[in-house]
Backbone:
């Protein structure tokens, strides 16, 4: 008796999607992990040797070096507070923002504060300054009272 070839089975049966997902995860997982590791390495700040950093500092102005030194000292002041987890006061935030503004390599100079946190401090300070600047200097309207009363007298207001 002749044996018939087996019938081709459909690729997707009702039970098979659950089998395919782990296989797909095994195939794509290492690719995603490699891309993530590459991205983290690409976005990490450059670290170089002390002699190279010293040579780079020779090209910087004295005022920028003094500002960087002040930024580092301010972070030390915050860390020396006798508390378990020191917090930045409003004065600390303003000083950190102003000093970071004067340092070209401010991201590499930050050790206790994340760059995103410092940018948040900057946004907060920016809002406060513009809120103060945009506040009306007096509470009297800039339009004369007669101009306001004119449409009301005509019955238009």
Residues:
């Amino acid at each position: 008796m002749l044996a018939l070839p087996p019938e081709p089975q459909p690729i997707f049966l009702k039970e098979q999607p659950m089998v395919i997902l782990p296989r797909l995860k095994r195939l794509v997982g290492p690719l995603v992990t490699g891309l993530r590791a590459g991205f983290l390495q690409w976005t990490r700040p450059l670290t170089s040797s002390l002699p190279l950093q010293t040579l780079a500092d020779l090209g910087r102005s004295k005022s920028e070096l003094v500002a960087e030194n002040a930024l580092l000292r301010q972070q030390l002041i915050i860390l020396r507070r006798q508390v378990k987890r020191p917090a930045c006061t409003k004065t600390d935030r303003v000083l950190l923002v102003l000093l970071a503004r004067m340092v070209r390599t401010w991201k590499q100079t930050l050790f206790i504060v994340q760059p995103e946190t410092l940018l948040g401090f900057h946004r907060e300070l920016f809002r406060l300054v513009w809120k103060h600047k945009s506040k009306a200097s007096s509470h009297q309207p800039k339009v004369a009272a007669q101009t306001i009363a004119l449409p009301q007298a005509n019955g238009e207001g």
Residues 42 and 102 are 26 Å apart (CA to CA).
